[in-house]
Amino acid sequence: MAEKTFTQDELAKYNGDGERPHYMAIDGLVYDITDASKKGISIKKLMEVVFGRSKEKDEILKKLTVVGKLAD
């Protein structure tokens, strides 16, 4: 399957509302964070990753599914 490229506007639609999954871009890759809490990843931990304050970044991102990349 080809990797999907998301624009900022398209990514904003994947906000977890209704039946849509919740996606987040981190370092240019788009991750599915819909079930992050079920994987032991809190919002706080995700924000620490986003803002470069996480010592566990690699371990956290390995638990999430990459669904594409963010358009340049």
Features:
single chain; 72 residues; alpha+beta; Flavocytochrome B2, Chain A, domain 1; 3 helices; 26% helix; globular; Cytochrome B5; Cyt_B5-like_heme/steroid-bd; Cyt_B5-like_heme/steroid_sf
What would your notes on this structure say?
There is one protein chain. The chain has 72 residues and is α+β, with helices and mostly antiparallel strands. The chain has helices spanning 8-12, 43-50, 57-62; strands at residues 4-6, 23-26, 29-32, 65-70. β2 (23-26) and β3 form a beta hairpin.
> End-to-end span in angstroms?
21 Å
The portion of residues forming beta strands comes to 15-25%
Strand order of the largest sheet: 1-4-3-2
The count of domains is 1
Whole-number radius of gyration?
A: 12 Å
Q: For this structure, what is the CATH homologous superfamily? A: Cytochrome b5-like heme/steroid binding domain
Biggest beta-sheet profile: 4 strands, mixed
Shape category: globular
Low-confidence stretches: none
Named CATH architecture: Roll
Question: What would a concise description of this structure say?
Answer:
The chain is an alpha+beta fold and about 70 residues long.
Would you spell out the secondary-structure blueprint of this structure?
Blueprint (H helix, E strand, L loop, with lengths): L3 E3 L1 H5 L10 E4 L2 E4 L10 H8 L6 H6 L2 E6 L2
Parallel strand pairs: 1-4
Antiparallel strand pairs: 2-3, 3-4
